[in-house]
């Protein structure tokens, strides 16, 4: 089964400001880099999704420092970068066409934010026929919310996703 690693919104904005720090952010980058390394070794396509604002005043406007992919990610020139402007990585982007053109059947998800762009994209992928997807624990994150802290948000979403929208894998990261 042909796979692709889809890494969502791992951008500098989540590492530059205390109020935006992703939960367990250093370990998150290490874990995602392990996925990237293994994907590159196995010739699995790596796709970075990059949130891009249409508002020039916004921190995530194309070209601004906070918009860039995190500086410590193992990005290769052969990786695909797709910009999006909404929570759903499929909405008004080339992602679905790219997956179909490359005959990708299974998606491996990682990135941020758990309850926003990741959740929306995981559910959209399932509805579009990608129903054998996987996600490794500790390869996605979010920030603390007003009602729930980041850890609770992450655990809740993993519980909802597992065996419904994808398979959550607990343990060593191995593609």
Automatic annotation (TrEMBL):
Taxonomic superkingdom: Bacteria
A GO molecular-function descriptor: hydrolase activity
Keywords per UniProt: Hydrolase
Domain Isochorismatase-like span(s) in chain numbering: 4-131
Signal sequence, renumbered to the chain: none
InterPro entries with a match to the protein in the record: Isochorismatase-like_dom (IPR000868), Isochorismatase-like_hydrls (IPR050272), Isochorismatase-like_sf (IPR036380)
Annotated family: Belongs to the isochorismatase family.
Name of the protein: Amidase
Organism: Bacillus pseudomycoides
Lineage: Bacteria, Bacillati, Bacillota, Bacilli, Bacillales
């Amino acid at each position: 089964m042909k796979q692709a690693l889809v890494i969502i919104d791992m951008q500098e904005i989540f590492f530059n400001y205390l109020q935006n720090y992703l939960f367990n952010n250093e370990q998150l980058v290490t874990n995602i880099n392990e996925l990237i390394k293994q994907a590159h070794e196995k010739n699995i396509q790596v796709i970075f999704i990059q949130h891009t604002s249409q508002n020039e005043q916004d921190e995530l406007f194309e070209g601004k420092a906070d918009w860039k992919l995190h500086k410590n990610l193992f990005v290769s020139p052969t990786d695909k970068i797709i910009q999006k402007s909404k929570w759903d990585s499929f909405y008004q982007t080339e992602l679905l066409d790219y997956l179909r053109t490359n005959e990708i059947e299974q998606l491996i998800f990682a990135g941020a934010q758990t309850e926003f762009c990741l959740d929306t994209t995981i559910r959209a992928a399932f509805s579009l026929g990608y129903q054998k997807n996987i996600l490794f624990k500790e390869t996605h994150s979010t920030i603390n919310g007003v009602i729930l802290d980041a850890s609770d948000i992450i655990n809740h979403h993993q519980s909802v996703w597992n065996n419904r929208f994808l398979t959550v894998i607990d343990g060593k990261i191995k593609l």
